[in-house]
Amino acid sequence: MSLVGESATHQRLMDGVYGRQRHIYDATRKFYLLGRDRLIRELALPNGSAVLELGCGTGRNLALAAARYPGARFHGLDISKAMLETAARRLARDHIDDIVQLAEGDATHFDPQALFGRARFDCVFLSYAISMIPPWKQAVTQGLDVLEPGGTLHIVDFGSQEHLPRAFRWLLHRWLSAFHVTPRESLREFLESECESRGARLSFESLFRGYAVLARITLPSA
């Protein structure tokens, strides 16, 4: 199947899963999508920063980040039309649609110049998106490819839950699979490989006994 075909298939899947879920998504996910607020706090964005969220969903993270860093400019990409509709309404309600730009696209291959009018960003982040993107490694490399020299890529997502009870891990994975979510066991190894090839620095932390992971890649300056 071509990349275009894969994108269309994934888009239909996401719209099907979240067409209704989007209305209760933020209210329910706050109990188990842990570490998102810490990621936003640690972005530490100076004024004038251009920021891109891949897999922006309902716009929850963009709204919080825009409130915390009003001097930055934000961009959100998502493959789901339904989620983007919800995000647009939220941004308009919060009166921040003037500093947040949304676009429909596949995080694994997109043209930022065509979508957002710029080729590179100072910061890119993915919040519980890696586990929902089948070709997730391509999403990571694409995020790194659109960073400015010295820019940072931030990721928070499910970990391997290695220090949690086995029964809890089994139940969690059963629950996640119902929403087509798969924790990426090899995330750290892949990020280490990318950093080695790009001369970048990696910070990788396990949170809540392995329930989640928080990673940051910093590219070398020009």
UniProtKB/TrEMBL annotation:
Example GO biological process: methylation
Molecular function GO labels: methyltransferase activity
Organism superkingdom: Bacteria
Organism for this UniProt entry: Nitratireductor basaltis
Every Methyltransferase domain range: 51-151
Protein name: Methyltransferase type 11
Keyword vocabulary terms for this entry: Methyltransferase, Transferase
Database matches in Pfam families: Methyltransf_25
